[in-house]
UniProtKB/TrEMBL annotation:
Short name of any one Pfam family annotated for the protein: Glycos_transf_3
Pathway: Pyrimidine metabolism; dTMP biosynthesis via salvage pathway; dTMP from thymine: step 1/2
Keyword Glycosyltransferase assigned: yes
Keywords: Glycosyltransferase, Transferase
A Gene Ontology cellular-component term: cytosol
Domain Pyrimidine nucleoside phosphorylase C-terminal positions: 358-431
Enzyme class: transferase
Catalytic activity of the protein: thymidine + phosphate = 2-deoxy-alpha-D-ribose 1-phosphate + thymine
UniProt subunit comment: Homodimer.
Enzyme Commission number, as recorded: 2.4.2.4
UniProt family annotation: Belongs to the thymidine/pyrimidine-nucleoside phosphorylase family.
Protein name: Thymidine phosphorylase
Length: 456
């Protein structure tokens, strides 16, 4: 007779669970028949023994069906797409990406995002820097937002993939969060519950990533692409470098400001070439995967046009207004009235460079931890967020610097210690040799039969 104990015993001993056993466990979990101790035992058994590809697929499918799933009109089939990032420092790509894509095409993007934990900034926390922005939407509101604007950017509803919510809370308590199989099942189940046809995965490697080096990131990318394929989602994963902060601003409200500056397209491409690279590369693939364009070059061209024409900026403003931001506030923000709309730190300090040369690196991991210390992130879910604090980079990798040049602005609300300032300076590495900005995107991982050479 199959029981929760027999299922646990089997996984504890390193045996493979079958479809029926995994289904029984997830169904019992949802109706409250799995105790906290039993759930913790299962998470630890999986952490120690891992899951086979078949087990991961079974877990993913039962997690998807553990609650409600989003469904769309038949005429949208093939056009529903989303993007997921494994998290980084200064990662504000999603905001610009959904704006340019809905401005230049007929895609539908039901982007369900999360909050910050550790040095990884949270999409929802950044959006809540904008007065009135509503991250909690019902399924009917999500549908209305897609009909009206082509996109929403919101949090996970209580009835979407409830099994994942229960399992993640337990993984957090039992130090089993880092198991790659459970991470993949968690990510893909939530994206599949959105009713997606296509998915782009931004898989980061480097000092400020959760995955470490490029080899580990490549394995993770292959696993996620395979997991998506096994539940019927077309997916591509991009390996992107995360040693230096993305763009020039790090911190919740500051990253919203940089997003609007980018969408206003006033020298934004020159000032933040890495942000432009990621938007063009990921965006052109999302357009091609949903049959909106026939080539990546065509995709990049219409994205640039949506930026230059300010259509992308207007799409961003429309999304803000739909999700609760007063129309006049959304308009002011998109007109560049940042101080009137976004939270502002009480103090800013400009830090100066101590040598001649070229910027070789700005350590994103150090900057991310320093933002945490300023109050701009959280170490546990109950921590409060200070939306005003962060860093503004006046110099980035490849820029020439001379002795005494201002290179970074610290936005803070509490006094800074000498140690804090020293660590800010230590995050900067300069070299006498000319330093060249590296491309963020290293390679793409695709599903069998998905020919995408060259990828950008």
């Amino acid at each position: 007779m199959m029981t929760i104990k027999s299922i646990l015993r089997k996984k504890r001993d390193g045996e493979e669970l079958n479809n029926e056993e995994i289904g029984s466990f997830i169904k019992s979990l949802i109706i409250g028949e799995v105790s906290d101790a039993q759930l913790g035992a299962m998470m630890m058994a999986i952490y120690i023994n891992g899951l086979t590809e078949a087990e991961t697929t079974h877990f993913t499918k039962y997690m998807i069906n553990s609650g409600s799933t989003l469904s769309w009109p038949d005429e949208w089939i093939g056009r529903v797409v989303d993007k997921h990032s494994t998290g980084g420092v200064g990662d504000k790509i999603s905001f610009s990406l959904i704006a340019v894509l809905t401005a230049c095409s007929d895609v539908k993007i039901p982007m369900i995002s999360g909050r910050s934990l550790g040095i990884t900034g949270g999409t929802l926390d950044k959006l809540e820097s904008i007065p009135g922005f509503k991250v909690g939407l019902t399924p009917s509101e999500i549908l209305e937002g897609l009909r009206k604007n082509g996109c929403v950017l919101c949090g996970q509803t209580d009835d979407i993939v409830p099994a994942d919510r229960l399992m993640y809370a337990c993984r957090d308590e039992t130090e089993t969060v880092t198991n790659r199989n459970l991470i993949n099942a968690s990510i893909i189940s939530k994206k599949a519950a959105e009713g997606l046809n296509a998915l782009v995965l931004d898989v980061k490697f480097g000092a400020a990533s959760t995955l470490g080096d490029v080899l580990e990131a490549r394995v993770a990318a292959e696993d996620m692409v395979r997991a998506a394929h096994n539940v019927g989602i077309k997916a591509r994963a991009f390996l992107t470098e995360m040693n230096d902060p993305i763009g020039r601003m790090v911190g919740n409200g500051l990253e919203i400001r940089e997003t609007v500056e980018f969408l206003r397209w006033e020298d934004a491409g020159e000032r933040t070439p890495d942000l432009l690279e990621l938007v063009l590369t990921l965006g052109s693939h999302m357009l091609q995967m949903t049959n909106q364009v026939s080539s990546f070059s065509e995709g990049e061209q219409i994205i640039r046009q949506s930026l230059a024409s300010k259509k992308a900026l207007k799409a961003f403003e429309n999304m803000l207004a739909f999700q609760g931001v007063p129309a006049e506030v959304a308009a002011d923000l998109c007109e560049g009235k940042y101080d009137a709309v976004l939270p502002k730190a009480t103090t800013t300090v400009v830090h100066h460079n101590g040598d001649h040369g070229y910027v070789a690196r700005i350590d994103a991991a150090v900057i991310g931890h320093l933002v945490l210390e300023l109050g701009g992130g959280r170490l546990k879910k109950t921590d409060k967020i200070d939306h005003a604090v962060g860093f503004e980079l006046l110099k980035v990798v490849g820029d020439q610097v001379t002795l005494g040049d201002p290179w970074i602005v610290i936005h803070h609300n509490e006094p800074l210690s000498g140690s804090f300032v020293s660590r800010v300076q230590a995050s900067l590495t300069t070299t006498k040799a000319i330093s060249v900005r590296r491309n963020r995107v290293l390679e793409v991982v695709s599903q069998p039969g998905d020919e995408i050479n060259p990828f950008h």
